[in-house]
Amino acid sequence: MHGGVDGWGRPFDVVAECAALDADVLVLQESWAPSDGGPSTAATVGDRLGYDVIEEGMARGRLFDPDPSADYRWGPRPRYAHVSFRLDDPRRRRRNFDRLHPHFSPGTFGVAVLTRIPVSDRAVISLGQLKRDPARRLAITCTVPVGEEALTVVGTHMSHLLQRSPVQFRELRSLLPDPGGSAVALTGDMNLWGPPLAALFPGWRRAVRGRTWPSYRPHSQLDHVLVTPSVSVIDARIAERSGSDHLPVRVSLEVGLLPTG
Q1: What does the alpha-carbon distance between residue 92 and residue 101 come to, in Å, rounded to a whole number?
Q2: Prior bond to 179 cis, omega within 30?
Q3: Spans of the chain below 70 pLDDT
Q4: How many distinct structural domains can be found in the chain?
Q5: Pairing with 258, which of 59, 85, 130, 190 sits 20 to 30 Å away (CA)?
């Protein structure tokens, strides 16, 4: 979601983009919840489109006012110069950054699972916080009916590889159901390419392949859906460009049939 803003801090229509996906279940990363008690990005989508929302905060942060020098590009170049938001890390102070960008709103960034079909159970899996990561990582799980079967959807937003994310991937794998006996879809921004992700989850398979990042000139796939053998992929695609820095991923799944191909 990128907090609902582009790299310059300009808002984009998150609700319209979620509506265009027309999904029974949405997994959203970087949902912004302002500290003043206003609705989060995910809550706004849920209220407007009729979804039940399960949301957890992962890091406190700052959403900056739109940059008056913004142009036609998604954000300034080089990319790391963008000032739309940043995560607060009490272990590190950035006095120069704070001095140059004093106008912001405080709040929390998180991950959310939205569903418009009934949920039989839900849980949050804590993955802890890595030394170089300002966010604590977690996964939200919920089980939804698919015909006469059930599918467990797991939504997450993982640390970067340079922050030693495989440690948390292995922890997550150990806490998820065995792929041989359960219908599960693991979804989210993994901050990792497909081949090493597949190696970290033996017995699972990638449901969709395509470049998702950065949205304005994609060259890598960081956003994935992994499924267990009892889940069939009916359709999978990378959706059209959004206001975020990632492209949306959309899959149609069926439970209880052996996969083909």
Answers
A1: 16
A2: no
A3: 78-83, 89-102, 257-261
A4: 1
A5: 190
